[in-house]
Fold:
Amino acid sequence: MIRIAIVDDEKFIREHVKKLIEDKQAECLLDTYSTGETLIQADKCYDIVFLDIQMDGMNGIDTARILRQKTEHTVLVFITGVKEYVFDAFDVAAFHYLIKPIDEQKFADVFKRAVLEVGKKKQQANGQLFVKTRYRNITLEQNDVLYIESRGKKVEIHTKTDVIDAYAGIGELEKQLKQNFYRCHRGYLVNLAFITEYSNDSITLNNSESIILAKEKYGEFVKVYMRYLKNGGGIFV
Structure:
């Protein structure tokens, strides 16, 4: 169930956005607020927040800064009548912005992408990896991934049992796989849990495969790996 908040001091906008959401997403918990202060005072966690920038009292940017202090996972979509605030939105990691009057097709596109982003964030929090292959979208358990190899515009994801070709950049996956994964080379992302040995230019995994360790990354890698082992890391079987 997706939790959504709409914050705007114009009742018409609140009701309009609410209807657009309900037409697209039947299963959701939806709250509306007329001010940033009332949203903050409610002290609730939302997956997506549609937030007006120009409001009486606390404006949308300041409201977003307070929200970001509580959580970095909320998908923020700003609603504004003027484009000059767009650059301020980057400071609070806004997902997108909508210009008033709201175009319904544009809203539908942004909302669809926001829902997908929520799914990715939840999967990441649950130790999962969401990837797109040629024929389908799949979810992998991070603990099943040995390493990822860059192949131009695609990647090869090497798991315990399979090699999966996916449409993604290795940098994009690195952001999703923060815990227990290390970028040992520009073309490789390795799961620390499966390492059995290493040298100054290679890493060997428990399936006997070897991947490249960039020489300029050797010192940093050793520190990261030693810290991982000190914190109780070990090989998954």
Summary: Residues 138 and 144 are 13 Å apart (CA to CA). DSSP finds seven helices and 15 strands in the chain. The domain at 2-125 is CATH 3.40.50.2300 (Rossmann fold). The two ends are 34 Å apart (CA to CA).
